[in-house]
TrEMBL record:
This is PH domain-containing protein. It comes from Balaenoptera physalus (Fin whale). Residues 558-736 form the C2 DOCK-type domain. Belongs to the DOCK family. SUPFAM superfamilies: PH domain-like. GO terms for molecular function: guanyl-nucleotide exchange factor activity. The lineage of its organism: Eukaryota, Metazoa, Chordata, Craniata, Vertebrata. It comes from the Eukaryota. InterPro entries: C2_Dock-D, C2_DOCK-type_domain, C2_domain_sf, DOCK, DOCK_C/D_N, PH-like_dom_sf, PH_domain.
């Protein structure tokens, strides 16, 4: 065996530093070993006998040509021809060679261009007459292209009017044939030979005329004389024709498999089987550059009113791909913050800790990736395995929670003088950012097509649609797919309320040597340059359909869980007095003890730490049955156990920012209104289907151990269920892992 070094496209291994120590199950251990180890190339003893027949080793000396086989039927034909030409070989005239032939029966209009090169062969027939046959090539065994019957020829004369070395055969029907040789010598030889034949024909005709009155008994002797004359001319011709035919067959006969045109083109004499290790596969890759998001409502947000005119409040863009042909979301979310620096200052400062808490990055990786440079991504690389025109790039726009979507969008939908309106919106936005800066609310959406056709040609001329106000009752991905189904119907889209603004995002193809990008696990590629000021580009995970056609062997470590809170049904609950502006906080924990901390393994949003301990879904104002579209991306630990679970904490967020009793109000910005949890493993496998789970009003220690025993009894701690332990929360998960099966 030989060893092939594992060649990846990354600067370091994709496996976390502590993964091998954490791994306990045999399957996970073997997966890690596979992604870390080199390839072994096995050479088999009888490898020469594999493959196709043309590659088989042949120890016998190869014969370039097949032996000539002579069969009885061929010999009998030869005997018949010899018997037909038993007479003497005297007087037989034969000649062959290349001549140029002018168009037949049009000697008057013959031009140089009308001459065609043909191979002429002079033969004597059984009745003693001569034919001048012509062919395209020297293979006279084939049917001739045509014949000139010399017994109808009246004379052969030189004719140099049209071409040099030309001569003319004049026929009895007043037509003529114009032929030309390559030299004067050849021309004279042909004229002499043909005139000699004409002389013989004339003498034979005269003799026949003299004997015309002879007795019928002389007919037999005449016939014999004819045969004798035939015998005198045929033998040489017949024999030479047969020899030429045999020679042609023997020269053109080769081994049967040599007749295969593929075998003639390919030379396997020194070919070694080319072995390529499995490589990371991608679909059609698209570079998405986010340039700007601007609304008509603008002003200067600085206190001293010195600075550029910008949007009056921060907005946050989330990009993803939707496939309306197969009715599904086909990529992870790509979060972008296009706010101006002065607008970002409106938000309360976040935690300065930017450490990667989900996985232990190697020191070398920390030297390459400066996490401060990763805070505000603007370029992403999407991959599409099955491109077609019905794939859309969708942008969802959010802003800081202030109230209802209708109330927040109203100032942006007017085209009148907006300076006073902008100042009012700015004032409210500053208060909201200071008080509710970590909470988001849906605001608007836009979409554009990606491809012109199913071949993957990008539709670069397409632009994003108008910015449509987000409908609070049509938030889910399913609702988005229905909206996109009507995207090409102007009469349907005209009914949607439009927010005045513009989203500038361009798309382009990705070259193979594209620099400075990281994969979906933030592992930099080999083209990554540490000293450059180029922005970092982020690969966005593609959700490849689980069908055999698109299944590929895994080559790198990848272990992500995507969590999607779908909806909460809280209109019938009686446990809490207020539960309307509901925020969901998602955490990933490895223990249900009272003082246990959530793991720092949730991918953060722009402007915040790269990994966080919790994530919030967007809040719907005054909705007791809110829907959600948020996607929370989690870097899972290498080894999962029964205690790993998702913890959902529900808060009622007070949007009232009145100044009265501001200190008291600030203390009750959020009120806990329930808990729910979802164990990650079920029967040793990660839960990936849609789940409906109950909500509790309290969170006692050891809550994972709670079990219903029936008859009103249970095992585990005392839990106060909301609304009679009905499954109020709907949540789904999507696993993208190369170390765990679904």
């Amino acid at each position: 065996t030989a060893i092939l070094r594992r060649q990846g496209r990354y600067v370091c291994s994709t496996i976390p530093a502590n993964a091998q120590q954490e791994a306990q199950s045999l399957f996970v251990t073997e997966c890690i070993k596979t992604y870390n180890s080199d390839w072994h190339l096995v050479n088999y003893k009888y490898e020469d006998y594999s493959g196709e027949f043309r590659q088989l080793p042949n120890k016998v000396a190869k014969l370039d040509k097949l032996p000539v086989h002579v069969y009885e039927v061929d010999e009998e034909v030869d005997k018949d021809e010899d018997a037909a030409s038993l007479g003497s070989q005297k007087g037989g005239i034969t000649k062959h060679g290349w001549l140029y032939k002018g168009n037949m029966n049009s000697a008057i209009s013959v031009t140089m261009r009308s001459f065609k090169r043909r191979f002429f062969h002079l033969i004597q027939l059984g009745d003693g007459s001569y034919n001048l046959n012509f062919y395209k090539d020297e293979k006279i065994s084939k049917e001739p292209k045509g014949s000139i019957f010399l017994d109808s020829c009246m004379g052969v004369v030189q004719n140099n009017k049209v071409r040099r070395f030309a001569f003319e055969l004049k026929m009895q029907d007043k037509s003529s044939y114009l032929l030309a040789a390559d030299s004067e010598v050849e021309m004279e030889e042909w004229i002499t030979t043909l005139n000699k034949i004409l002389q013989l024909n004339f003498e034979a005709a005269m003799q026949e005329k003299r004997n015309g009155d002879s007795h019928e008994d002389d007919e037999q002797s005449k016939l014999e004389g004819s045969v004798s004359g035939l015998d005198s001319y045929l033998p040489e011709l017949a024999k030479s024709t047969r020899e030429a035919e045999i020679k042609l067959k023997s020269e053109s006969r080769v081994k049967l498999f040599y007749l295969d045109p593929d075998a003639q083109k390919l030379d396997f004499s020194s070919a070694e089987p080319e072995v390529k290790p499995f490589e990371e596969k991608f679909g059609k890759r698209i570079l998405v550059k986010c340039n700007d998001l601007s609304f008509n409502l603008q002003c200067c947000v600085a206190e001293n009113e010195e600075g550029p005119t910008t949007n009056v409040e921060p907005f946050f863009v989330t990009l993803s791909l939707f496939d309306i042909k197969y009715n599904r979301k086909i990529s992870a979310d790509f979060h972008v913050d296009l706010n101006h620096f002065s607008v970002r200052q409106m938000l309360a400062t976040t935690s300065p800790s930017l450490m990667n808490g989900g996985r232990q990055s190697s020191p070398a990786l920390q030297d390459i990736l400066h996490e401060a440079a990763m805070q505000y991504p603007k370029q992403g690389i999407f991959s599409v395995t099955c491109p077609h025109p019905d794939i859309f790039l969708v942008a969802r726009i959010e802003k800081v929670l202030q109230g209802s979507i209708t109330h927040g969008a109203e100032p942006y939908m007017k085209s009148s003088d907006s300076s006073k309106v902008a100042q009012k919106v700015l004032k409210n936005a500053k208060q909201a950012c200071q008080r509710l800066g970590q909470y988001r609310m849906p605001f608007a959406w836009a979409a554009r097509t990606l491809f012109k056709d199913a071949s993957g040609n990008l539709d670069k001329n397409a632009r994003f649609s108008a910015l449509y106000k987000q409908d609070s009752n049509k938030l889910s991905n399913e609702d988005m797919l229905k909206l996109l189904a009507d995207f090409r119907k102007p009469e349907k889209m005209a009914k949607l309320p439009v927010i005045l603004g513009n989203l500038d995002i361009t798309i382009d193809n990705v070259s193979s040597d594209y620099p400075n990008y990281v994969n979906s696990s933030y592992i930099p590629t080999k083209q990554f340059e540490t000293c450059t000021k180029m922005p970092i580009t982020f690969e966005v995970e593609e959700f490849v359909p689980c069908i055999p056609k698109h299944t590929q062997p895994y080559t790198i470590y990848n272990h992500h869980l995507y969590v999607y809170p779908k909806s909460l049904k809280y209109d019938s609950q009686k446990s809490f007095a207020k539960a309307r502006n509901i925020a969901i906080c998602i955490e990933f924990k490895d223990s249900d003890e009272e003082d246990s901390q959530p793991l720092k393994c949730i991918y953060g949003r722009p402007g915040g730490p790269v990994f966080t301990r919790s994530a919030f879904a967007a809040v719907l104002h005054h909705h007791q049955n809110p829907e959600f579209y948020d996607e929370i991306k989690i870097e899972l630990p290498t080894q999962l156990h029964e205690k790993h679970h998702l913890l959902f904490t529900f808060f009622h967020v007070s949007c009232d920012n009145s100044s009265k009793g501001s200190t008291k109000k600030k203390d009750v910005v959020e009120t806990q209104v329930g808990y729910s949890w979802l164990p990650l493993l079920k029967d040793g496998r990660v839960v990936t289907s849609e789940q409906h789970i109950p909500v509790s009003a309290n969170l006692p220690s050891g809550y994972l151990g709670y079990q219903e025993l029936g008859m009103g009894r249970h095992y585990g701690p005392e839990i106060k269920w909301v609304d009679g332990s009905k499954p109020l929360l709907k949540v789904s998960t999507h696993l993208v892992s190369t170390v765990y099966t679904q």
